[in-house]
Design goal:
Chain lengths: 128, 416
């Protein structure tokens, strides 16, 4: 971990965007990492195959929670199909943090929850 | 009894460090500060060189040939059993069975003794502070034999609740299996008292000594236990080697756990008879080099003296706790008094331990964060995870100072 490169993550960790749940969500999914207790739920509302609203709630480390905040901000207005194309490596680069591979799971949990929620199981695999 | 402090002038953590090659490396550009000793210890040059020397000069299988190398390997491997026996005060080295680790030793007891001696309704008493290794094998016996597993509680200070122990110990209790030193709380449990009560009830006593054997002087006869288990890698030895101590009569009466080569005396097409102790429980080619390495680790520890290690760790522990308790943003789980080893568990309130450990890693400091293979204890403490700093003979006060600086830095970064 390199704290100097964590500006974006720390901003979202301390001031999370899109925090909460949606009562009328089209997709809602929650997953966790049992070994560290992190949990994220993402709710999204879709219209004409576009995401019109996304919210998250959860608990865990700064990286996993900030990643969820950043992701929900990123996907507003996005086509569902382009979410299918989002890959882990790209998302890690967006986060802009230099973390050890041991913590990739924390950083990618939100993306996994989103993809699994929309496209079902096995739509996302952690890569090393 | 007056405590005799015979601190030899030779004990010097700074000199000891030079015996450990790993301390010459840097992590993220900083000198390594290793405070994860309850997970595994670092290895002295003597152990590392001993492994190399064994493979370069003596490597052979044991108990199998008449050639020189086989004889040498056999003697070295048997000698390692003798060193373990001496180290824990067993009267006969044949009471020492080498396994992979404490976990395998506990499984050996559960399968070899438990499956054949426990019946429906029999109770096994463990504690809420057990490592998963002393919970899960018993749960297997709940399924297989219908035994009842009961948990001794901890009190609000984090010590074993002896009232709970006495309440749960009944004439149905067949086994008391207890962690000697908690890998989270660092407390040393009062085994002598537990042992006396367990004897009165006629149950057998198993001690998980994975966190005590490396740090405090113990003697299986004084503890009056039936079995004691530990892992070599937590006591300066290699990974993949651990041991089981068992009273001879018990080990002789039990069925083997693993079957195959070297554990037999005779084999016909129809049946087999078992080898003598301890080989009856060491099927197949064992971890010969690992066993020899463990023996060398014991030589090293004995040369320094467990009393001195204990005293050094106690100083580090007091120093650390005295500093940590000044920080109101911490929640500390290790009791502030009583007999403990060098283990401190805590959380920065509102901050996930992985974030704190990540900052510390950036500063070259290795601490553990997570549930420490003690989910029932985490649950009891109403937490999901904790940070843990654990010390050993090579740690210094200067390292604790760096640890405290890094901890405060992490707090500043992540506080909300």
């Amino acid at each position: 971990m390199n704290v100097d490169q964590m500006e974006l993550v720390l901003d979202h960790y301390k001031n999370p965007r899109n925090s909460g749940t949606l009562s009328n969500a089209d997709f809602s999914h929650e997953e966790g990492i049992p070994s560290c207790g992190d949990k994220i739920r993402i709710d999204i509302k879709v219209s004409d195959d576009k995401i019109v609203e996304a919210k998250f709630c959860g608990k865990g480390c700064a990286i996993s929670q900030a990643a969820a905040s950043i992701l929900t901000e990123m996907i507003q207005g996005m086509d569902l199909n382009s979410i299918k194309d989002m890959d882990g490596q790209q998302f890690l680069e967006t986060l802009g943090v230099n973390i050890s591979p041991i913590r990739y799971k924390c950083a990618l949990l939100a993306l996994k929850v989103l993809k699994t929620g929309v496209f079902g199981d096995n739509s996302f695999e952690y890569e090393h | 009894m007056e405590k005799v402090i015979n601190k030899l002038p030779s004990f010097n953590a700074y000199e000891i460090r030079s015996d450990f090659p790993i301390f010459s490396r840097k992590v993220n550009g900083k000198p390594l500060i290793y405070l994860d000793n309850a997970a595994t210890s670092q290895k002295p040059r003597r152990v590392i060189d001993g492994l190399k020397s064994y493979y370069e000069n003596n490597n052979s299988n044991i108990h199998r040939g008449v050639h020189t190398l086989s004889y040498e390997s056999t003697v070295m491997y048997e000698d390692a059993h003798k060193k373990v026996a001496g180290f824990i005060g067993a009267s006969d080295w044949k009471e020492i069975v080498f396994t992979r680790n404490a976990t395998e030793s506990l499984n050996l007891i559960a399968y070899s003794w438990g499956l054949h001696n426990l019946d429906k309704g029999d109770e096994v008493l463990i504690s809420i502070m057990e490592h998963h290794s002393n919970i899960v094998p018993w749960q297997m016996l709940c399924q297989a034999r219908g035994i009842v597993l009961k948990f001794i509680d901890v009190d609000e200070k984090g010590n074993l609740d002896l009232e709970s122990f006495e309440r749960l110990l009944t004439d149905k209790t067949r086994v008391v299996s207890i962690i000697h030193v908690s890998n989270v709380l660092g407390v040393v449990n009062p085994i002598n008292y537990i042992s006396k009560k367990t004897r009165e009830q006629g149950a057998i006593l198993i001690i998980d000594a994975a966190q005590s054997v490396p740090h405090i002087n113990l003697n299986v006869k004084e503890l009056d236990c039936d079995f004691l288990v530990a892992s070599g890698h937590k006591m300066l030895g290699p990974t993949g080697i651990g041991f089981l101590y068992g009273k001879k009569a018990l080990l002789e009466s039990m069925e083997p756990f693993l079957f195959g080569g070297d554990m037999i005396s005779t084999v016909t097409k129809e049946k087999s008879t078992w080898n003598e102790l301890p080989w009856k429980y060491e099927a197949g080619t064992p971890n010969i080099a690992g066993g020899i390495g463990l023996g060398l680790a014991i030589d090293y520890l004995e040369n320094i003296g467990l009393e001195q290690i204990e005293e050094h760790e106690s100083e580090l522990l007091d120093y650390t706790l005295n500093n940590l308790k000044q920080l109101p943003w911490l929640e500390i789980y290790t009791p502030l008094e009583g007999q403990r080893v060098g283990v401190v568990s805590f959380n920065v309130k509102g901050v996930h331990p992985h974030d704190v450990a990540g900052v510390m890693d950036e500063d070259g400091i290795a601490v553990r964060s997570g549930h420490h293979c003690t989910q029932p204890l985490m649950n009891r403490l109403n937490i999901e995870y904790a940070l843990r700093a654990s010390f050993y003979l090579y740690n210094t006060k200067e390292e604790i100072d760096q640890f405290l600086i890094s901890l405060k830095r992490a707090y500043k970064i992540f506080k909300r």
